[in-house]
Amino acid sequence: MSNLQNILVSAKRGLALGQPIPQSQWSAIAAQCGPDEVAEIHVRIKKLRSELETVEGWDGDTQDDIHTAIHFFSHLAALCTK
Q1: CA-based diameter of the chain, in Å?
Q2: Which of 37, 55, 78, 81 has the smallest number of CB atoms closer than 10 Å to its CB?
Q3: Main-chain dihedrals φ then ψ at residue 20, nearest 5 degrees
Q4: How many Cα atoms sit within 13 Å of 50 on the Cβ side?
């Protein structure tokens, strides 16, 4: 069972609502991820890409948010496999 959500919640402690996890913490997050977490990361990326296809063209803010999440999870996945 994946512990990814708990890892991310812990990483966001002390951050303002809506503030992204700083890139300086990404390696520490990746170090806590095992195979289950990596699998969940890939599922999240797939779901985000699917969600992006449903966003209206005029909704650039939502598109940006989804792209930001895809960027984060893609880099996290790469760090997990190192």
Answers
A1: 38
A2: 81
A3: -75, 160
A4: 6
